[in-house]
UniProtKB/TrEMBL annotation:
The chain crosses the membrane at residues 24-45, 129-147, 153-178, 190-212, 224-243, 289-310, 330-350, 362-383, 389-411, 423-446, 458-479. One of its GO terms (molecular function) is symporter activity. It comes from Biomphalaria glabrata (Bloodfluke planorb). Residues 64-73 have a biased composition (Polar residues). Keywords: Cell membrane, Cytoplasmic vesicle, Glycoprotein, Lysosome, Membrane, Symport, Synapse, Transmembrane, Transmembrane helix, Transport. This is Sialin. Its main location: membrane. GO terms for biological process: carboxylic acid transport; monoatomic anion transport. GO terms for cellular component: basolateral plasma membrane; lysosomal membrane; synaptic vesicle membrane. It is a multi-pass membrane protein. Pfam families: MFS_1.
């Protein structure tokens, strides 16, 4: 690792002399975190709304007709005997489980495409407009979803692919902005707070979608997409008016805060990001980068398995109605949000007090955030609808404890290469996005026959095994140090300056 890291002290030990005098609570960087937080509420609202809506879009009498064997697991009373052409929620779209899994997974076909280009564009030209334009596209795609759904499931897949491309570009754009805005000793809490908006988006969208399914305008489920699409559009306008790409361009930032941020990032090339040459070969041969990639892939497998299928699992295995389904589906993400923010503050406190180095902190938080949920998922596989409280409790812990990882690998891009954080995030998250369209299809195939507890047990075992592998790989290969390929420009400039001075002295 000695050749891979730039010869600097751990950034935990590098503190601006006047950092204690720089305001935080009413600062521009905290304001950026807040509007970014609201942005990711909208990103996930338009992303997960279909996971609940599909329960009341589809004619459940077709899918339930294969579930007669499941009733023996929970008693005869648990089985809903529906013989009408429509489900109790008014669903009329005739999609089998494999088709539903394909539709839910199609989002990730697009999500895979846009991330690396978004990281590169944002690194070269700034993340503000990348984020703004993609969110405007997302709002339009969301509003068009009911129309496309009624036209054909192929048309809906196309819309979901477009939505995946657009929302996938938001993360690299935001990571690029934080590479220019986040002081090293504050980056964990600022970045984790921003991305915690995703969990709040889920918390709000699941119960809201459940209510709109049953009581919404435009015949119920279409109102889910109209409400979330319009909210996304309104946020986009606010973002355009209020946000700047970096502190030097911000109109309302104080001088002390601007100087503090710029001086704290002086070793990382971010000030010259518009003319950066991206060291692609060094990036793709860096084991710390691959540690992040593997951590991201394994995290997303478990996350997407749960995110896209929790409403279905609760509806068909635990037998909750759609209104309760939305509320119960949101519970894990309420705790997730709390865990993310507590973890962010705790990680920065550990680093500030030098209890652990940045690298060890990232490894510990990532490992705990994978292994603990893996244990919960294995236990969840042994619970059925006769134990709803236990099932919900395990589900809450399985989802929420993964939030600890946000203070681990998810921030690690900015640790090792702040100038290229958007590109690194684009690489890792685009590769991880593959799991997003594979996982729902595999879950659909495994649970196609009867939606039994035994089938879901297989799903949870697979997710747990993948989590554990990711934890081990990250602990072995991750780093918390600024990498040489992200700092060598400043090093070269210092060497050149020294050589020039020596040459000048010799001439004199």
């Amino acid at each position: 690792m000695a050749k891979e890291s730039f010869d600097l002290k751990d950034d935990v030990k590098v503190k601006s002399a006047n950092s204690d005098n720089v305001p935080f609570w009413f600062s521009s960087r905290l304001g950026l975190a807040f509007i970014g937080f609201l942005g990711f509420i909208n990103v996930y609202a338009v992303r997960v709304n279909l996971s609940v809506a599909i329960v009341c879009m589809v004619n459940q009498s077709r899918t339930d007709s294969n579930n007669t064997e499941q009733s023996s697991e929970c008693g005869a009373g648990a089985y809903r005997n529906e013989t009408s052409d429509q489900s109790p929620l008014g669903g009329y779209l005739d999609w089998d489980k494999t088709t539903q899994g394909t539709i839910l997974g199609s989002f990730f076909w697009g999500y895979l495409i846009g991330q690396v280009p978004a990281g590169w564009i944002a690194t070269k030209f700034g993340g503000k407009w990348v984020y703004a334009v993609t969110m405007l596209v997302s709002s339009v795609a969301t509003v068009l979803t009911p129309l496309m759904s009624n036209f054909s499931y192929i048309a809906l897949i196309v819309v979901r692919v477009v939505l995946g491309v657009a929302t996938g570009m938001t993360f690299p754009a935001m990571h690029t902005i934080w590479g220019r805005w986040a002081p090293p000793l504050e980056r964990t809490k600022l970045i984790t707070f921003t991305y915690a908006g995703a969990q709040v988006g889920i918390v709000l969208t699941f119960p809201l979608s459940g209510m709109l399914c049953k009581y919404g305008f435009a015949e119920g489920w279409p109102s889910i997409f109209y409400v979330t699409g319009i909210a996304c559009f309104i946020w986009s306008i606010a973002w355009i008016l209020l946000v700047s790409d970096d502190p030097s361009k911000h109109k309302r930032i104080s001088k002390i805060e601007r100087d503090y941020i710029i001086s704290s990032l002086k070793n990382s090339k971010v000030s010259n990001s518009g003319t950066l040459k991206v060291p692609w070969l060094r990036i793709f041969t860096s084991m710390p980068v691959w540690a992040i990639v593997v951590a991201n892939i394994t995290s997303d497998w478990g996350a997407y398995t749960l995110l896209t299928n929790i409403p279905t699992y609760i509806n068909e295995v635990l037998k909750f109605d759609i209104t309760s389904n939305g509320l119960v589906s949101a519970l894990p993400y309420i705790m997730f949000w709390l865990v993310i923010n507590i973890g962010g503050w705790l990680a920065d406190l550990i680093r500030k007090k030098e209890l652990l180095s940045t690298g060890i902190t990232r490894k510990v938080f990532t490992a705990v955030g994978k292994i603990a949920p893996a244990v919960m998922l294995i236990a969840l596989g042994y619970v059925d609808c006769s134990q709803p409280a236990v099932a919900v409790g395990l589900l809450v812990f399985a989802v929420s404890l993964t939030g600890i990882q946000y203070s681990g690998f998810l921030v690690n891009h900015v640790d090792i290469a702040p100038a290229f954080a958007g590109i690194l995030f684009g690489i890792s998250n685009s590769l991880a996005a593959v799991t997003g369209f594979i996982s729902p299809v595999i879950v659909g195939v495994i649970t196609e026959e009867r939606q039994t507890r035994l089938e879901w047990q297989i799903v949870f075992y697979i997710a747990a095994a993948i989590y554990i592998f990711g934890a081990i790989f990250f602990v072995i290969f991750a780093s918390g140090e600024l990498q040489s390929w992200s700092a060598e420009k400043e090093k070269d400039e210092e060497v050149a300056l020294k050589d020039n001075k020596e040459s000048l002295n010799q001439d004199i």
